[in-house]
Design brief:
The chain is mainly beta and 566 residues long. The chain folds into 4 domains: 32 residues; 139 residues, Cupredoxins -  blue copper proteins (Immunoglobulin-like), CATH 2.60.40.420; 162 residues, Cupredoxins -  blue copper proteins (Immunoglobulin-like, Sandwich); 186 residues, Cupredoxins -  blue copper proteins (Immunoglobulin-like, Sandwich), CATH 2.60.40. The strands form 7 sheets. A 7-stranded mixed sheet has the order 12-11-10-14-19-16-17, with no helix packed on it. A 5-stranded mixed sheet has the order 3-4-9-8-6. Strands 13-21-20-15-18 form a 5-stranded mixed sheet, with no helix packed on it. Strand 1 and strand 2 form a beta hairpin.
């Protein structure tokens, strides 16, 4: 690519009006220019020495589906063809644009042949799976239209709900929004022994927000606001359908919930105040069930919910809602951020997600196990750096959402982003003082967090007590500060602690009882002013593993970095 093209793109993406212009460019220009600096690798082929227990073809293609009454909607869609393995490996969701449910067993050897039938580059990431770096769906493995990429790996994960979705550089949000996403379940013996609700009593719940035009076509990201705050639809779809309803018997069910939105954060709670019983999160089952008045669910996060409708009368209804909360959007957008798009499904407002209808009375129901699993917790003493956490510094401005002060660039590994394989690391995610050349002071130690194109030229202080959130052109402290779901590729991590500054306590009170720290995670919601400490293993595999904001608009803007495991 010529320097002229790069300079033009830099000008567009680093100017406020340029964000609007870039968002409106034809898709092929975005695809061509979005891969700047990313190597084009020869797609991985099948290894003749790899003997899979499961093999299937996975297709990415354009399709038309019925979502709203009337005209069909053009989408991008995953479909699969099972070539070897148990028949329940691939389960289609009838009438949905979502990809099929993929069911795998711990210990299986899996081969997946990815076919790109789109008109733009793509690659698939196995969000939550512990796989080799070259099988993880890093953007450097993106394939062009007509190409085939072969994944081969052994399932090492414990039982849990994972995600598969595209990860091409600067096209991820667009492709996910247009339908390319699906759920991948891993099963194991520990889970099987519990005899949890299964079959028709285990229900996937994929929550997404979308916006449609008068012809029922998807509308996506035409303004600077759509990218800076994230993109928000004006209606909620569950499993790809509006006004979703579940008919149940008066017994216990297992709801496997995924936030598949690109940016929207939900505060899930039953309309009658019934507490939520949580048995698992991103990285699988908790050790014991946990009861919550509500649960926060950011993009990329998952919940395993024990929903017991025993004792409810036939004909009764229960509605899962997103309850009111505040503080996740920038002050410049305000609590009613959705209003900027001229619709009423405002972020942080109260609205329904789906309805449960009891249509049958039954007398038998499984009992909630008191003990669910055993988690291999890592103590602080097991970390390689108990006194020097690896920083993940969040900084924001109207023109740049950054991690560790640098926009994403391939082969731009900083010293502290180099991690020795088979180590366990303490990390600290925090809001820094905006962009700028400087250092992040973390627990008395300093890490160089030299920025590119920074404006402020000042140090970053950890702890989340005071923050400027990127002054940029706004001219006011914290104007762009917002919540970010931070996702780390590879193995799940444990949350050690959360702390928030006094200035944010009022907003924080509306969400703080909805966080679950008692399970393994791969995505964590970090509120404005919040500092989150995590312990994460980097075992088995060397290579590049990404960490990024799972507000996918932010990811595509460059809020993404690589760890090099060596």
């Amino acid at each position: 690519m010529s320097n002229n093209k790069y300079s033009r793109r830099r000008f567009l993406t680093q100017s406020g009006l340029g964000l609007v212009a870039f968002a409106g460019m034809p898709n092929f220009i975005q695809a061509m220019e979005g891969m700047h600096g990313m190597p084009k690798l020869t797609p991985n082929k099948a290894n003749v020495n790899f003997k899979p227990d499961v093999e299937f073809d996975l297709f990415c293609r354009s399709a038309s589906v019925s979502i709203l009454p009337g005209q069909q909607t053009q989408v991008q869609q995953y479909s699969a063809l099972l070539k070897k393995g148990p028949q329940n490996t691939i389960v289609d969701i009838a009438g949905s644009y979502l990809g099929p449910l993929i069911n795998l067993q711990k210990g299986q050897k899996v081969r997946i042949n990815l076919y790109n039938k789109l008109t733009e580059p793509t690659v698939t990431h196995w969000h939550g799976l512990h796989v080799p770096a070259n099988m993880d769906g890093h953007p450097q493995y993106t394939i062009d239209p007509g190409e085939i990429l072969v994944y081969e790996f052994e399932v090492l994960n414990r039982a849990g709900m994972n995600i598969y979705h595209p990860h091409p550089h600067e096209l991820t949000a667009k492709q996910v929004y247009h339908g390319l996403a699906g759920a991948l379940f891993v099963r194991d013996e520990e889970e099987a022994q519990l005899e949890l609700p299964a079959g028709e009593f285990e229900i996937p719940i994929v929550i997404q927000d979308r916006r449609f035009d008068e012809q029922n076509q998807l509308v996506y990201a035409h303004s600077m606001h759509d990218r800076m705050a994230g993109f928000y639809g004006d209606r909620v779809l569950v499993n790809g359908k509006p006004d979703f309803k579940i008919d149940v018997a008066s017994r216990a069910y297992r709801l496997r919930v995924l936030n598949g939105s690109t940016a929207r954060i939900y505060k899930l709670g039953w309309d009658d105040g019934t507490p939520l019983t949580i048995i698992g999160v991103d990285g699988g089952l908790l050790e014991q069930p946990e009861t919550k008045p509500y649960v926060m669910l950011a993009p990329g996060e998952r919940l395993d919910v024990w929903a017991d409708f025993s004792g409810r009368s036939e004909g009764s209804q229960l509605v899962m809602r997103s309850l009111s909360f505040s503080g996740v959007l920038p002050k410049m957008v305000g609590r009613m951020g959705g209003m900027m798009h001229g619709h009423s499904l405002a972020v942080g407002s109260d609205y329904p997600i789906f309805t449960v209808r009891v249509i049958k009375k039954v007398s038998d129901s499984p009992k909630l196990p008191a003990q669910l699993s055993k988690i291999n917790w890592h103590p602080l003493s097991a970390t390689a750096n108990p006194d020097k956490p690896i920083p993940i510094a969040i900084s924001e401005s109207p023109m740049a959402m950054l991690l560790n002060g640098r926009p994403y660039a391939f082969n731009d590994i900083q010293d502290f982003e180099r991690i020795k394989v088979n180590t366990i690391q303490l990390m600290e995610i925090f809001h820094a003082h905006g962009g700028g050349h400087g250092k992040a002071a973390v627990s008395g130690e300093e890490h160089n967090v030299e920025t590119q194109g920074g404006r402020m030229g000042m140090g970053h202080k950890a702890g989340g007590m005071g923050m400027m959130g990127g002054l940029g052109m706004m001219g006011g402290m914290g104007m762009m500060t917002m919540a970010h779901p931070i996702h780390l590729h590879g193995q799940s991590f444990q949350i050690v602690s959360r702390s928030v500054g006094v200035e944010q306590e009022t907003d924080y009170a509306t969400v703080k009882d909805g966080f679950i720290e008692s399970g393994l995670k791969d995505t964590v919601l970090v509120m404005p002013g919040e500092k989150v400490r995590i312990i994460k293993p980097f075992q088995d595999f060397k290579g590049l593993f990404m960490y990024h904001c799972h507000n996918l608009e932010h990811e595509d803007m460059g809020m993404m970095r690589d760890f090099l495991i060596e």
